[in-house]
Amino acid sequence: xxxxxxxxxxxxxxxxxDKSAEEIGAAAAQQALDDAGVKWSDIDSAYLSRMYLPAxxxxxxxxxxxxxxxxxxxxxxxxxxxxxxxxxxxxxxRSGESxxxxxxxxxxxxxxxxxxxxxxxxxxxxxxxxxxPSYWSMRARRHMYDHGTTEEQxxxxxxxxxxxxxxxxxxxxxxxxxxxxxxxxxxxxxPIRLLEICAPNDGAAAVVVTTxxxxxKIGGRPVRIAACVHSIxxxxxxxxxxxxxxxxxxxxxxxxxxxxxxxYERAGMGPGDIDCFEVQDTDAFCEIEIYEDIGLCPxxxxxxxxxxxxxxxxxxxxxxxxxxxxxxxxxxxxxxxxQVVEVVAQLRGTAGPRQVADAKTGMAHVLGxxxxxxxxxxxxxxxxA
Amino acid sequence: MSIAADRPLTxxxxxxISEPLDGPEGFRLLGSKxxxxxxxxxxxxAVCLNCGGSNLSTVRLSPEGILWTFTxxxxxxxxxxxxxxxxxxxxxGLIELPDGVRIMAPLEGDIATFRIxxxxxxxxxxLDADSPAPLAAFSFSMIG
Lengths: 385, 144
Fold this sequence. Notes:
heterodimer; A: alpha/beta; Peroxisomal Thiolase, Chain A, domain 1; 2 domains; 9-stranded mixed β-sheet; two-stranded antiparallel ribbon; 13 helices; 35% helix; B: mainly beta; CATH 2.40.50; 5-stranded mixed β-barrel; 3-stranded antiparallel β-sheet
């Protein structure tokens, strides 16, 4: 099977802006085209990843680049929307139907907790079960009980991510906090605190995807898509679905473990072969659990693994070099493609103070409502003279 | 059951709670047990969420269980939340029943006292008590 590559990337910073979705989306898309060295008229299909924007947003945003008759499709899979859209691009190219595809992620979200009516049944909302962080917090509490994970270990993850974001111009907060400030920030849902969770916001990120052959003709700095996998949680495997009841007898592996395993198999790699990771830190505890699910450390060891510094930029397995969603915010449709933009920068060696030394491979991971999970593995392409 | 003769309680979701609410066997949550794989889920469902089987029977769930995990909700939940106004922080947890299922439910009682492993008992929770159409919901309370 022919290799599929990312030839260009673009991003509009994540934050809160007095700009329309059309403005920020078109800016990211144009930047990706420029980075790839191609024109809008070279694109033969396009996908918009979004959760909150209304119907036909893809066509409305991209018509700012000029008139076209190509298929433009909006893709939604909650927090994994970007992975689902990137996978569509991969399939379109592998089928031979398309050769040059634009994937845009864009979102403009209200401040505060996410609107629950799209995810929860009315009775769950009425009874008070619709505050998203409560689900992650219950997992954190159980992990602390089972494995001795501490509130300080959780806070250390937030500390790392906030500090990494200081040099990322695309992050929302870009502010370093002391461990004490994090551990004294208000509880949102015990044991998770305000400086340990991500906030919905606005943002856009885009990639231009094509075949390795076409990329060679154009030139530039392509990055190979070694795997792009999307799956949803198996029965009773994740109560973020959100579930109203869970099995006490069947213990299925969670969506991150399942999706990462498939991605490793497709890429022919294991956790030790990946040089840097961008993962879904909806909250700081979530990142600890992901270390275990993607095989960076044994089950139950995630808290200690974080505290020992292994996931710092200079550690053995750098995680969330960009600052993660905790510091960037989570414009849901744009979040995965934002991770991909960071990993591409790492593989090109252009990440500046956040650069992981000689990164050749990287993973981007997202996880959210419906148990939707996506994992993309990228690999540096040797450019021949 | 009603909180006033002219204001009968309506179950918050059909098939979730045993009716009549003041029946002789007491207030219970209802579940669906699969005849093929034996898995149990809350509420009356037509299809098993595990194996897809359609031979399901409605069962009355055990009213007592063990607190498996919990959190304290310290901000008003978004959307059409029907809890007390002004907002009061409350516990939310998964209660493991001996039937083989864990139920997500609000927790009654002092938020400082919840602990994993505590014995819990089902209680009827009335929402919108002052409205013309109060709702019958449920929560769990610590025993002892």
